[in-house]
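Q: Give me the 3D complex with copper (II) ion.
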Amino acid sequence: MIRRNILSDEGVRQQFINGVLALKDPARFPWPGQQGLSIYDFFVAWHHQSMMLFTPPTQRDRNSAHSGPAFLPWHRYFLLRFEGYMISALGAPDFRLPYWDWSADAALSDPRQSPIWSQDAMGRFTNPSVWQVRIVPSERGLTRLAQPRPLERSLGILGGPLPARDAVRTVLRDQPLYDAPPYNSFSSGFRNFLEGWEGPARIHNVVHVWIGGDMADSTSPNDPMFYLHHCNVDRIWRAWQLRYPNAPYVPAQSASNNLAFHRIDDTLYSVFRETTPVTPRRVLDPLSLGAPFSAANHYDYDSMADLQG
Ligand SMILES: [Cu+2]
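A: Here is the predicted complex, encoded as C-alpha cells.
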C-alpha cells in the first residue's frame, strides 16, 4: 500500500481530513477514562511525554524520542500506530498516511501561498468551528484547557526558510553513516542532519518552527500538519536506507545504558501496551515490519525520485 503526496491526490487529502476529524471526536474515538478527550489527544500526550523523558535523566538534550538515534524509528512507530487508527476510522484498509513535500513549497516565491494552506486542505484546521486544541504543555507537565482554543500557526515568521531540495539531497549524499557518538544533538551522521541539529538547513526542526504556533511545541501533534511533515521525514529516511542498504542502525545493544530507548533492541517509548515490544530493529523495513505489525501495516512511497542525485 502506498503513502502519497497529499497535494497530488485529492482523494487521499479528503480521507486524511475526514480521518483526523473522526479521531478528534470524543464521541467516536474516546480516550478511555478522560471525559471529553479523544484518541487524537492521546497521541498528542504520547508525543509530549516522550520529550519529558530524558535519557539519561542527568542531562537535558537527548530524550526518549528526540536528539538521539531513536528519533527516526520512534516517529515511524508513532505514525504506524496513528495510521492504524485512521484505517479503522475510515473503514479503509488500503488507506496510508499522505506526506507533505515541503521542499516543493520551498521553491515557491511565497510558500505561504501553497495550496496546502487553502481552506479545502490544511488551512481548514485553523477554523475554530472545525478544530480546537484541548491539551497544552505547562510547567507541571501537560494541562487540559478548561476552555479549548483554536489552533495556532505563524507561517514563515520564524526560523528561516523551508528546507530546499538541494539541501536534503546533500544530506542524503554526504551522510553515509546513520549516527555517531555521542548520539545526541551534537552528533555527525544522517539522523542528526535530518533531525536538524546539525547542518545549515536544519531540515526537520525548521519545518516545525516555520509552521510555528502549536507545531513548535512538545504537543506538536495538536496540528495535523505534524503527521504530513513526519511522513515526509520518514520518506527521506526510507530513501537513505535504500541508498545505503548496508549501513547499520546504531548503536548496537551492547552500548551503554545511558543510551536506553535508543539501542537497536530497546523498547521504543510507548503509551500502548504492545504484546510484542516495538524496537528500532522491528521498524527498520516498512515493507517487512516485525511484530506486532503485520502485512496490513506494510507501506511504500509513491515516489522518491526527488531525493536522488
Ligand atoms: Cu517528535
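A quick observation: The chain has one domain: 2-307.
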